[in-house]
Amino acid sequence: MPVKLTDEQRDAVVCRNREMLVSAAAGSGKTRVIVERIMSRITGPERRNIDDFLVITFTNAAAAELRDRFEREISSRISETPSDRHLKKQLSLLAKAQITTIDAFCLSVVREFNHLCDLSPSVSIVDGAEADLLRSEALENTLESLYEEIESNTDFAELASLLSASRDDRLLAGAVSDAYTKIQSHPFPDIWMEETIRVYENCPDDFGDTVWGNILLKEAVSTAEAAKRILETALDLLKDEPSLECKYAPALRDDIGVAEGFVSSAGNGWDAAVEAASAPLSRLAAAPRDCDPVLRDRIKSMREVWKKIYGTISESISEQSRVHIDEIRRILPAIRGLFAAVKRYEREYGRIKSSRNLVDFNDVSHAVIKLLCRRSGELTEPTEVAELIGGRYAEVLIDEFQDTNGIQTLIADMLTRGRNNLFMVGDVKQSIYRFRLAEPEIFISRYNTYKDYSDALGDGVPVRMILSKNFRSRPEVVDAVNSVFKKLMVGGFTQISYGEREKLHVGRVCAGDPADDGSGNDYETSYAPGGFNPEFMVIDIPEAEDDEEDSVGKLEAEAAYVAKRIRSMLDGGFQVEEDGIMRNLRPGDIAILLRSASSKASYFERALSANGIESCTERSGPIRTAELLALLSLLKVIDNAYQDIPLIGVMNLPIYRFTPDELTEIRSADRSASMYDAVRKSAGKGNEKCKALIESLSSFRTYAAENGIDRLIRHVYSVTGLPGIFSAMAGGAERRRNLMRLYEHAAKYVSSGRHGISGFINYIERTMENGTFGSDEAFGDDAVRIMTIHKSKGMEFPVVFICDISCKFNLDDTRKPVLIHPKYGIGLRILDQDRMYQYPTAVYTAISRKLREESLAEEMRILYVAMTRAKEKLIMTCALPGAAVKLQSILKNADGLGIERIRSADGPAKWLVPILASHPSGARLREISGSDYFSADEPGTWITDVITAGFSDEPETGREDDTAVQRLKEASGSSEVKASEELPPDVDELAVTIRERLDYRYPFAGLSQVPSKITATQLKGKAYESELTENAEVVSRPLSHLRRPRFAAGITGLTPAEKGTALHLAMQFADIMKCRDRESIEKEIGRLRESRILSGLQADAVDPEKILRFVESDLGKRVYAAKSVKREFKFSILDEAGRYYPDAPAGEKLLVQGVCDLFFEEDDGIVVVDFKSDKVSRSGLSAKAGEYRPQVELYAYALEKITGKTVKEKFLYFFSVDEAFRL
């Protein structure tokens, strides 16, 4: 039975013969419209078939859900008209209907027309971690080839130079990879790069006429006008205080003149704006003593805002046009170098994929563009293939059109060109996938240019339609959303004007609503204690000493409040509606939404658990679970048993059951050997566990040689029973799912034609690190769900908590060394070669600010998505350290800045606090902050409050009830306590008790500073540290000493420090007793090279003469004549902690470890020798030796304790001066 539609939905269903864009607000029934539109053409006079339509959705899950929706709808209509054979036919056609993602559609096109493109029909798709590995390989090969030609490739050399501020080439690699990804999202990447280069090559003389200068001037004018409004407000306020007006007004009028002069000059070009931005400001005269101090401070605060804005303008608009045009010319070679590197990277990546018969979705989509598009000058026309494919479909429908990009839009346009059969539906206010290269500007452009459907235009005219009725949420939630976004989405850089047409309108009839049953019942009080009104709770927490502690404290306090609030709602009879009936709230009705959940969800999990509430979390980001690490360790050992750490991890597994004591005994049997050799030796001595382990690994290794990695993992599971073992542990179901996912990844890895254990380990570690392993926890039926806002898209919940409102926006994309914008090109910093200092060009600054604006616009949309998930109740929480001060800071002059306040915000709290403080319901926020910022004409009712962390769990409490002052008042039996009054005895006792507890000092505080273990290296200079640093002067190294990275400067070989390390390694591992002359020393160095103890570069860097001089020295001769010689002697002793930490209590022990380079024994005692490769002069030998004295003294002390013999001498041998220093 067809469902009842609103007038707007009906219009969207019946409109024909024109392109239509449907702007469907949250909860407005857009999926219903898509289904009804197609069903109306199937069951109506046209008698269309369901496979006559191409329906493009955003995800595979959305496509499956839509296909299921059609199946249910068709089945329902068949049950009403069982004799309709045409409807029955649709069920059989549904399986082949094109209800799909754009990627899947493109893949089907390529496979059908593979004879016309370069792709084989048998290719496999590579994505995720496997694609990342291939891209890393391609990038490494690309950069290596570019470095080889760096002397002749001046463009690449310039690019490498600009990005050489770090110590390696990670910035360069990241820039090439990022540029490739973003450029590939353009339908014609090569054309885009060519056009970008032309823009840089043909810059006008006036920088203000460039796209970048225009951005900076527009922003400067906007901020100047906002500041002018603040100054004018300040002048108006002064009229009530004549004495202050005569002092302050002249400067303020001058300021207004400066602002107006700048705005006027900006219209005359860049250089005129630069001159206007350098105008000096007048000084503010001293205020009279008898003036109103509150007004005085407010006026001064308003002028400080203006001065800050003017300072920003002066900084941005400070250099003449010729300076910026010269910068553009300077960075042009680097941009050419970047584009050339991107093209070479694309070729190399393509070569690697081709060698494996793989393609990625970029290849597929660009192949489809070539099949469907024909370029004719600046025009793009559909090809015969496009005409053929497009002719198959009565209509092309695109869901979630706000998340499309240039490639996807062009494909749809080519299929529908001249047919007037493109139907697009979406909501730009819910476009939140910029990180996936979505371009909401495409939706906005069409929305702004298409005509309203209500204008009754003729066929062929593109039209737009707005669905604004929300059928999901209660009126209270709808009003809350509208009250926020009418103040946030104000046009300009926010991209959306949230007016009467765009705002949500209530479409839901609630249970108990008078419109529902005519009873007039007040559902707010009948069904929901506390009401359905939205809440904004500021949680006041103590200020911490550092940012990290501050962040942790905020999350803990916020999570504790949320958990208690949920507990009170569950226990207090809060009710929600289900199928028109009110019922009690359950945990599964509640969602906690976070901007980022990877590191924050655990705080809420623990708090909920402490309150007896089950929760489940959507996991994203890196995953490191015990069961996966265990299996990876086993795979690593099967591949190569000579890996000590993975082998020990395997021996700890329940299937092998080695105890710590057994591991210690095995390791101690031969400390110089690898762990695997030690296991083999123990097995040879009859250790049955070691025998079983070796046999097990040998069996797995044999199986791996004959089978793929997927079959090996399945075999391991079968033989060891590990899935069952981990299933029996806490969180067993999720552990088992992870192990099954590991097997699925292995099967996918093998099916892509790849083999080998080590390659699979690299692949799976990449998936675990980048969050693509697929470890999302299955949501329980009756558990509070904790998830990111992105994950909640398309979902709805009766009760929604939006938490961590005080978080900062992630604006990392605006600070990358290379900025890339599809419209404004490439932004680079310039490197000052003399001072090795990077500074942003004006182009970089302009693109950075444009990216920041786009990021902020998306953050608004993310907030919109979060707030519109709520059906019954919306609660927002914001933890602020020192809330009163923070609120005052946020609300200072908030009413005068307009869109500039929105632009300057660094987190959602900076948006929401001023909006809700100005709301009629925001009295509590105004009271705490001392603000009079207020607007009476706002929709809905909010519950706003500021509560003290840990004292309350309800919105209406937490002001003073639980403070110590209140407790004292109650104890005295009086509402007031005066200092002159004598308190009752019990209060005196209470005061003593409080004082004693506040004065308590932990008796072992000193011990908390004593580590459990210390190494000899840590003792270097320990005795002198406080003495040296007490009166030390901090000296900044001048920038002139900074050097370019060695790779960028063309320098090869080892650094002096690395050469010193190589010499020390040679002395550590060489057989010193064989090093009698230069020839034998060179032979020993060759042995170390062959055994790979030294790399080729290291071996070449070792100077045999240095070793020979030690051999021929008096100390060296004593070594050869000694009774015994020990090298690299490792020791561990348990010693008195007071020896190293004087404040440690008597009897406290400390583990001391170290490695003595060399000691030898003579008839009358032991001689200790420690080698040093530090660069030191003979005059500085004594001071340098003093730094190492505690370290060598410890060696001597330890040797005496261990051997029971006397250490008679201690030497430091410095290779830089070939001299031994006796301590």
Question: Mind explaining what this structure looks like?
Answer:
By secondary structure, the protein is of the alpha/beta class. The chain is 51% helix and 13% strand. A 7-stranded parallel sheet has the order 3-2-8-9-1-11-10, sandwiched between helices. A 7-stranded parallel sheet has the order 18-19-17-20-24-14-25, sandwiched between helices. Strands 26, 27, 28, 29, 30 and 31 form a 6-stranded mixed sheet that branches. Strand 21 (818-821) and strand 22 form a beta hairpin. The longest helix has 35 residues, at 321-355. It is globular. Mean pLDDT is 84; it is low at 515-529, 775-779, 952-983 and 1021-1052.
What is the helix fraction of residues, given as a range?
40-55%
The radius of gyration computed from the alpha-carbon positions, rounded to a whole number of angstroms, is 37 Å
C-alpha geometry: globular
What is the number of E strands? Answer: 31
Structural class: alpha/beta
Biggest β-sheet strands, sense, barrel = 7 strands, parallel
Global mean pLDDT: 84
Task: Briefly summarize what is shown.
The protein has 48 helices and 31 strands.
